[in-house]
Task: inverse folding
């Protein structure tokens, strides 16, 4: 298994764990029956802190992965990306953005059909998570099967 495949697997697992643990942490803090402003404050802080927490956790996990990879294989992380790596990254980003845009449109559509506002936030957050997972799976697929 190549470095890129291992990195894609670690990225996939970490995205699932980060999102899962963050949701488990934030779920009890949801303001039941509160005012609309409290609900908007909750969802705003949910998105903001999920973004910050996710970035910090991904950086930390990436550092730990590189340390463990170097210790176990005595190899360094590849310093350059060839044309195949760039093409795979472009395809993964394209699929990830496509999934997020579809989720965004569904979230806006939920407002049009008079769904509660929290439904829009749930759809947006879920589409962000699914797009992250889609990008990691796309990278893993293309590194294994080719472009």
Result:
């Amino acid at each position: 298994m190549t470095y890129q495949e291992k990195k894609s697997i670690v990225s996939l697992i970490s995205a699932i764990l980060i999102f899962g643990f963050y949701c488990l942490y934030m779920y009890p803090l949801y303001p039941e029956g509160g005012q609309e402003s409290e609900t908007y404050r909750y969802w705003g802080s949910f998105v903001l802190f999920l973004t910050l927490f996710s970035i910090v956790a991904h950086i930390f996990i990436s550092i730990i992965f590189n340390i463990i990879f170097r210790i176990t294989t005595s190899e360094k992380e590849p310093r350059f990306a060839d044309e195949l790596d760039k093409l795979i990254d472009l395809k993964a980003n394209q699929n990830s953005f496509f999934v997020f845009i579809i989720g965004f449109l569904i979230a806006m559509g939920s407002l049009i059909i008079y769904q509660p506002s929290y439904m829009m936030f749930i759809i947006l957050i879920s589409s962000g998570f699914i797009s992250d997972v889609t990008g990691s799976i796309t990278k893993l697929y293309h590194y294994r099967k080719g472009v």
